[in-house]
Specification:
Helix 2 crosses helix 4. The protein is of the alpha/beta class and about 290 residues long. The chain has one domain.
């Protein structure tokens, strides 16, 4: 497997995206459960048939672009064009001396988003991101070795990893989170996501309450025919709720719902590149059903 990944890492981005599109459709056609989930999730969000079909290929592109992103030398910059849209939001926050909380939905290439931030801003404000360790031992070891780069620290999504995130934020550094990732038991609440209850992490909402933190949405859109990426940064679509008159539990639930609405607004920019096949509405073990 390592030899195959190494071979793929040396192919052009256009080649990887072309083969990845075929892979995405092969997985879609071979798995009835994945096909049904993707269609149900996209339909729930009001995505058109054309956009839903495009997302099938985009999921495969995401998988095939990873070897090239992971296996290049750590000190080698991303070797394809990266455009920026909204980078001034980061610059302004850094000029104010604020830390950053970057919320990235499962859209486009979130691996590129993190690496591109580290290359442009990491020397000034390093970025820490959590990741979920793979179940396969060989892939878990690979993740540990390739995701950390200059200006970018990847930590496992464990209790120890969360402590590292908190320490980084208190130091005035940047954090990156996938807030639409289903959290483990006890680390989320049920909140609407495209009109359907989804078990949603509370960590993002709680981190917004740290002093002097700017919250931004971030994603990296794939450009057509392997021409690179466009990294987009936007403020939240709506301000988080005021804490006045709310206890901690009520405020957290309201803030989580607000963040979900901002994610929906971001996804509307490129619904064809969102991972609709992700099991977003699953009920984790030991978590009570939707009240």
């Amino acid at each position: 497997m390592t030899l195959l990944l190494t071979w793929l890492s040396r192919r052009s981005l256009r080649f990887l995206h072309a083969v990845g599109a075929l892979l995405g459709w092969a997985v879609y056609l071979a798995s009835p459960s994945y096909r049904a989930r993707l269609k149900a999730n996209a339909t729930q969000a009001g995505v058109s048939t054309a956009q839903r079909r495009a997302s099938v290929a985009e999921a495969g592109k995401m998988a095939l672009e990873l070897p090239r992103l992971w296996l290049r030398p750590r000190d080698q910059p991303i070797d394809y064009p990266v455009q920026w849209d909204g980078a001034d939001h980061v610059t302004q926050a850094l000029d104010r001396g604020q830390s950053l909380l970057l919320l990235a939905p499962h859209m486009g290439s979130f691996e590129v988003a993190g690496q591109a931030y580290a290359e442009r801003f990491g020397a000034r404000q390093p970025l820490t991101v959590p990741y979920r360790p793979a179940r396969q031992a060989w892939l878990r070891e690979l993740q540990e070795n390739v995701r950390t780069r200059p200006g970018l620290l990847a930590v496992p999504a464990t209790l120890a990893g969360v402590r590292q995130l908190m320490r980084a934020l208190r130091k005035g550094q940047a954090l990156g989170l996938l807030p639409d990732q289903v959290p483990p038991e006890g680390m989320g609440v049920w909140a609407p996501f495209f009109g359907q209850p989804a078990y949603t992490m509370t960590l993002a909402a709680r981190l917004t309450q740290q002093a002097d933190v700017t919250v931004l949405l971030m994603w990296a859109e794939r450009l057509p025919r392997g021409k690179g990426y466009k990294v987009c940064l936007r403020p939240l679509a709506e301000p988080l709720p005021d804490k006045a008159g709310l206890d901690e539990e009520a405020w957290t639930a309201a803030a989580v719902a607000s963040i979900n609405r901002s994610l929906e607004a971001a996804i509307a920019h490129r619904p064809d590149q969102y991972l609709w096949g992700y099991h977003r509405y699953k009920q984790p073990r030991q978590v009570p059903a939707v009240p």
